[in-house]
């Protein structure tokens, strides 16, 4: 039993074409081919080894990250990788680094907010990494005397930063603007005069985000040349006069839509990784039933295990597809902006804000649930799950705190409703609000469990729930004389309405996906099962919303739950193949519990002995501390 | 602004006597006095410093733990501390160590399962720490050839273990029994012949549980002397004959009730710590409202912040009181057992299993929510929250996986219901099931929001919900011809019914607490607010249960939520004082964000510079990796 594929019997059970599903997951044959090739390239190169991360000290860890970043860049050049391939390579190296901020924030900020001239000056330097940049917005505390605090890449590596600061000319405060500031000498890396910069210290977890030099920055009388203010939207003239350009301010929102769309895509990656680990291990793990004496059961066959695991599997697919759609949305918005059409921007902005919040929150919780689904062994670093959680979870906070984002969505929903009266038609993901009269009084006509499999039934229930929750908020808000006070007082309900709206978006995009042509034996059918699991799981979890708004009856809620159980049974034989479809290498997964061949126990046993504590049989400290204790000699021991 | 108490204005707002609340929280004046004295003793002794934990390598960390354990033992002897004081001292040292298992599992196992003779032989050695023991039950995998895996203290320190293994005599399998096994030489600590033992490797987080040597153990032809089988309940004679003693087997359950009761008490400690940090920091932190330009608001004044934070504050108190009650329950059960009265044991067993599951799950999630409530800064190790989460979260898994425990509770509930017909009166926390007929048809008569403040109203709603969910499960189970199959199929619903039952227990014990005489100005009133917050928060969160079973109407659910909002406003001015009442030292809290004086920012700034990465301004690795990158020299660089 030592060698071979311990999950072969599971793989044989699959009722669909896994290879075809891989293409669907990747988005296209081309995307699959690139991912597959680059992930194998990384996995097969010992320079990208990462299993030792939890054991390294902060300094060793960080130095190792610098090595990997330099080596990755070297390979990118040597292999003449395209931009797409290069970014995939960084993705599969799977280690947060200053390069994330350089490529993901510094460059886009200059592209988005710099003038043509500024772009021509700075972008070529940045593209060749002759300068390294970060994005410095957040501050340590409140008040004017604060430091920049948190920017990734700032602490130890960046030579430059886009710094956000108040612009004051002639004693007038023009608000926050972006500036390109050089921080360190390009010769010896020492901070320039007047600049104090350092790392802000250890963060959550082993390895994890500690590979990143999140930094602190203080200025003491530092002069920033006028032409290093990012001046696409507003300018300061040589004479110190402030003015706005004719470029619309809204352009800036386009960048936010872009960044948040990538965060949604990352959510599906992180969640699918955790689900892949928990699913494979649940098929490997056997336990007695709670009535002793029964035969040993694969824990994946317990309904409780399924009811915790399969909704997360379905969520991973749901987030993948909504992420794909957001990519399209971003392209669409960009094209419209270029044509001076701003009509869809607020909706797109609210939609990406909400989806960022929802998918990151569900992913963070989902990773931790997957860890618990692995029982005790999930608590070991070698399971990969602790580090995956620790490295992922700040996504709930950065690029907009999740609660603050939901409040923005709620504000948009209330506004959309209030404009219905004046005849303004809601667009995009809020289009259903146009049918608000119907949605306020429609009745769900589910009679038997299978009725819940109909997309139209699901969609109407979710639309009605969301519309009714938003309308209830709007009604309650109208009772306040001061709208802002009302908004503050009711913000708890408003957040719940925003969540209902965003869940509807994800469900409806999954349903839309299924209306497309999807090739491959059984592929579409499996996705249908997952879509229904996702929707009915949400419906069960948020039963209270659906019942209190009268969208469904208790009997219908009961039938939905019954149908959900039946769906779990349908998903069960396909579970392993559904996670194989992610096409993750063992290197990328970084988990003994999730290894492809399922040969978990010998690998766990072997890995244990590599812990530094096992360097010696008798541990360091035995003579000084344990021996005197056992021998009752502590009184005289020096401790 | 640098010195002084930055939270003084908050402390002045309190509407109750904080000193009196401290006594309530501690349980008695005596308990308060001991905790206060010992926690200050630990806090003031630099030998117990712990803020460097995240930066230590595994070996340094572990050696440091050995030192602290020996030093603590030395102090316990020098100061002639009582057992109560000694255990408090270990508690406030706040670092998992082999001693936890020695005192918490090894000793109780011998006391619970050893004969008088065995106790006389082993206990004195263990009490003086002339031997160090652990508790070895869990195995790596399934199958007969597996290793012991996970026991704390086993990896590097224990000289002895209580090992659970199958007893086979004359070819007959008598099931799992406990054996005292010596693992290491008492002279030089080397493992005895045939014994392989080591550490299982790094676990979740920085510092955290990595101070513990969870271990792996293999035996190769090791003989265990017959008299080292724990023989209180069953014996093997010199001639190899197996027999049962007249001591009832159920005694063993008493030990489980004991251990799980301590876990519930620990839950309230861990959750209150996190809540204390998040509450103080929420009063320190200021942010602009989402509509820019408004004045800076303390984030604790946002309703969304309150609706996430205050239920956790209320839960900490709720868990404290239910834990106190469980301590009483354990004493009661023990006395009954000694009088050969087993009538309450199954109920006590189910109740502790369920409460262990509920409180540990809510605490783990609650700590993480508190971390998020602190925004980005909660992600720093110096906030204390990452380590608190990582060290706490395995409580959801050890001493019974939480899902498995809930299934046991559900089994007990179904059994209780089925015995109603035969006239068996349910006892203790299931007594309400005796009124099942009333509970199936009663109507909640809440008409206005304040009606939800009445304990009787809350209690009936929670009882009706729990009874109806259990009855629905029982009805659905009866449709299956094979009851075990039904139980497996419906286990998702059964778990939900078990949760409803356990939430009722916590709510009802909080209400019972309030029926006692509680001295101190305003103390009882504040606890009343917290009790109502706890109950109405649960009601809102699980609205779906209450509505689908028809226990309340949508209108009543709405009124409950309205009342909840009003309660948050009442709690707000008392929030800081309510966490001050935990009486935690800054040492025990281990969090810059939670420090008593609220002077957060200068401390964060100062702490950052202690990170090893800041040892040098230009980081290690710059010359090898960053310089060649900036200078386009990578092609020739050795990486
Ligand atoms: C790993 C990591 C990487 C980061 N990288 C960068 C970077 O590269 N560059 C950079 O500039 N920054 C970076 N940040 C900072 C990040 O953008 C901020 O942490 C984030 O914007 C949240 O702000 P905050 O930390 O001030 O939280 P706070 O705003 O202080 O949040 C604290 C609490 O207050 C609540 N709250 C705040 N405002 C409101 C409101 N208006 N209404 C209701 N509730 C409110 C929040 O919900 C939260 O519960 C990073 C942070 C992390 C953790
Ligand atoms: C930090 C830590 C310290 C520990 N210390 C000790 C120690 O000192 N001594 C010791 O002996 N052990 C110790 N343990 C082991 C611990 O007791 C086990 O991890 C725990 O009992 C859970 O068992 P498991 O790991 O086998 O999980 P599993 O049982 O494999 O759980 C995996 C999944 O299967 C599900 N599952 C399992 N059985 C069923 C069922 N019957 N019905 C439905 N679902 C089921 C679970 O819900 C879970 O989702 C420790 C563990 C940890 C993490
Ligand atoms: Ca570490």
From TrEMBL, chains A, B:
Amino acids binding FAD: 138, 152
Looking at the record, the residues that make up the Acyl-CoA oxidase C-terminal domain are 455-631
One of its GO biological process terms is:
fatty acid beta-oxidation using acyl-CoA oxidase
Q: What is its main location?
A: other
Keyword annotations? FAD, Fatty acid metabolism, Flavoprotein, Lipid metabolism, Oxidoreductase, Peroxisome
For this record, an example GO cellular component is: peroxisome
The record's annotation in InterPro entries points to: ACOX_C_alpha1, Acyl-CoA_ox_N, Acyl-CoA_Oxase/DH_mid-dom_sf, Acyl-CoA_oxidase, Acyl-CoA_oxidase_C, AcylCo_DH-like_C, AcylCoA_DH/ox_N_sf, AcylCoA_DH/oxidase_NM_dom_sf
Active-site residue list: 399 (proton acceptor)
Keyword Lipid metabolism on entry:
yes
Looking at the record, the residues that make up the Acyl-CoA oxidase C-alpha1 domain are 253-414
- Give one GO term, molecular function aspect: FAD binding
Acyl-coenzyme A oxidase N-terminal domain: residues covered: 17-132
Q: Tell me where on the tree of life, at the top rank, the source sits.
A: Eukaryota
Q: Name one Pfam family in it.
A: ACOX
**What family is it from?**
Belongs to the acyl-CoA oxidase family.
Q: Where in the cell is it found?
A: Peroxisome
Tell me the SUPFAM superfamilies matching this sequence: Acyl-CoA dehydrogenase C-terminal domain-like, Acyl-CoA dehydrogenase NM domain-like
Does the keyword field hold Flavoprotein?
A: yes
Q: Which cofactor does it need?
A: FAD
Which protein is depicted? Answer: Acyl-coenzyme A oxidase
């Amino acid at each position: 039993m030592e060698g071979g594929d311990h999950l072969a019997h599971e793989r044989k059970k699959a009722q669909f074409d896994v290879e075809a599903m891989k293409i669907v997951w990747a988005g296209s044959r081309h995307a699959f081919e690139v991912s597959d090739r680059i992930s194998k390239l990384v996995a097969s190169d010992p320079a990208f080894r990462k299993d030792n991360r939890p054991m390294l000290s902060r300094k060793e860890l960080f130095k190792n990250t610098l090595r990997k970043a330099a080596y990755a860049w070297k390979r990118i050049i040597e292999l003449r990788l395209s931009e797409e391939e290069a970014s995939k390579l960084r993705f599969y190296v799977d280690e947060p680094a200053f390069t994330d901020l350089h490529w993901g924030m510094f460059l886009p900020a200059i592209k988005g907010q710099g003038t043509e001239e500024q772009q021509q000056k700075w972008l070529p330097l940045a593209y060749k990494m002759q300068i390294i940049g970060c994005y410095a917005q957040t501050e340590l505390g409140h008040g004017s005397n604060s430091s920049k605090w948190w920017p990734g890449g700032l602490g130890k590596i960046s030579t430059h930063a886009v710094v956000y600061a108040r612009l004051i000319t002639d004693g007038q405060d023009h608000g926050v603007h972006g500036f390109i500031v050089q921080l360190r000498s390009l010769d010896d890396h020492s901070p320039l005069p007047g600049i104090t910069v350092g790392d802000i210290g250890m963060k959550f977890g082993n390895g994890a985000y500690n590979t990143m030099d999140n930094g602190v920055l203080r200025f003491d009388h530092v002069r920033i040349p006028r032409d290093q203010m990012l001046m696409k939207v507003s300018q300061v003239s040589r004479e110190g006069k402030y003015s706005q350009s004719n470029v619309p301010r809204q352009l800036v929102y386009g960048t936010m839509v872009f960044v948040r769309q990538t965060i949604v895509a990352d959510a599906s990656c992180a969640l699918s990784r955790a689900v892949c680990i928990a699913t494979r291990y649940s098929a490997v793990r056997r336990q007695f039933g709670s009535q002793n004496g029964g035969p040993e059961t694969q824990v994946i066959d317990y309904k409780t295990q399924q009811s915790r695991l399969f909704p997360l599997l379905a969520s991973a697919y749901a987030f993948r597809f909504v992420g794909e759609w957001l990519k399209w949305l971003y392209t669409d918005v960009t094209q419209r902006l270029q044509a001076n059409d701003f009509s869809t921007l607020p909706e797109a902005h609210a939609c990406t804000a909400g989806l960022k919040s929802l998918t990151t929150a569900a992913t963070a919780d989902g990773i931790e649930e997957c860890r618990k689904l692995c029982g005790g062994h999930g608590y070991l670093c070698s399971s990969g799950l602790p580090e995956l959680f620790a490295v992922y979870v700040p996504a709930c906070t950065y690029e907009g705190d999740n609660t603050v984002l939901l409040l923005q969505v709620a504000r948009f929903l209330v506004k959309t409703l209030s404009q219905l009266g004046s005849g303004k038609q809601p667009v995009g993901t809020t289009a259903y609000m146009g049918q608000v009269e119907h949605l306020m009084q429609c009745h769900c006509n589910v009679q038997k469990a299978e009725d819940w499999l109909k997309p139209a039934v699901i969609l109407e229930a979710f639309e009605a729930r969301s519309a009714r929750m938003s309308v209830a908020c709007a009604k309650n808000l109208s009772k306040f004389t001061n709208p802002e006070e009302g908004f503050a007082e009711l913000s708890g309900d408003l957040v719940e309405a925003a969540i209902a709206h965003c869940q509807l978006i994800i469900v409806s995009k999954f349903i839309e996906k299924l209306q497309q042509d999807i090739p491959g034996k059984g592929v579409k059918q499996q996705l249908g099962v997952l879509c229904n699991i996702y929707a009915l799981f949400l419906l069960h979890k948020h039963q209270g919303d659906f019942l209190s708004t009268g969208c469904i009856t208790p009997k219908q809620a009961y039938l939905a739950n019954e149908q959900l159980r039946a769906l779990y049974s349908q998903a069960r034989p396909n579970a392993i193949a559904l996670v194989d479809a992610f096409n993750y290498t063992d290197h990328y997964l970084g988990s003994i519990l999730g290894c492809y061949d399922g040969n978990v126990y010998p690998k766990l046993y072997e890995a244990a002995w590599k812990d530094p504590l096992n360097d010696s049989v008798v541990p360091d400290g035995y003579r000084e501390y344990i021996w005197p204790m056992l021998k009752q000699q502590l009184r005289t021991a020096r401790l």
